[in-house]
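Notebook entry, structure prediction.
Reason for the run: the old model in the group folder had no record of what sequence produced it. Starting over properly, with the input documented here first.
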Amino acid sequence: MKRILLLTLLFSFPFHALVISAVPPPKVAKPVPDKEVGPKKKYSFIGKLLEKEKVEPAEQHDDKKEGAKKDGDKKGKKNKKGVRTHLLKFQIKEVIDGKDDLKPNLVLICVVEPGQARNPNQVKGGKAEPGETYRVVSTKKELGEDKVLRLSNCRLFSAKGRVGEEFAIGKAWNGTLPVKSLEILPEDQRKSPVAYLGDNKAFTAFMESFKSFDEKVAVPPIDFSKNIVVLVKNVRHPEPIIGIKARLDEGSLRVAPKKDFDFQGRILKGQIFASFFVLPRKGITAIAGGKSHQFEIKPPGFIYAD
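New structure, fully documented this time:
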């Protein structure tokens, strides 16, 4: 009788009630879509430093540190003094990267934080001098204020040889030159890495001493009323000049030699390596080489006092 009653109670519950009481199957996790991360934008340019300002972060109280006093007569412990940063205001002369936001003549502010130098040409913010030109690299744009852009995490490098737009040098003649023949140049151009010849008399005297590596190539006649001859020479380092690169910056042509540092030949005593090219006078008022050598191009027919 008890068995019949138990079976009656068991079959009185619907079948789906027994299924609901079972453990539910585990849920399958849906794959999470990969987050798209854009490339880190880089800003780099060559600019003239207009102003610099040193900023020292204010000392703050750390009330959360153990032992700090709140609302008492004694002040809490102070944090260590923050590192000094510099705000540098530049005028862009040439854009290398970041052309969407950077344009020539744009004035911007760079936040330069001190840190370990990563490159021998890197310049600390405190050593940057207004009026000088630097190559600046930043990987983060902080904010824009009207026409003034603000970049953070900036690094400064020497812009030697990278000032202005690249200037195409045509045919150049490479060779050697006796040191004594430098006397045909004005005194201030004899020891500089760059000089120029502005008349036919000086150029003729120069060609009598210059020995070209390629003697088969003749120098064409030069009209000195429209052109000058730019001379690049190695007065300190005994490496042959195999090419010339130049950049034009507001009428000033900055010239630098390309040297053969693998040269293992014999260097003749009293000789230097030199190279020259013909340069149109129009639009160019001065030539420069290195940091401290710049010469104004005199008009045709000018006679030097010495």
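Summary: The chain has two domains: 43-158, 165-296.
The old model has been moved to the deprecated folder.
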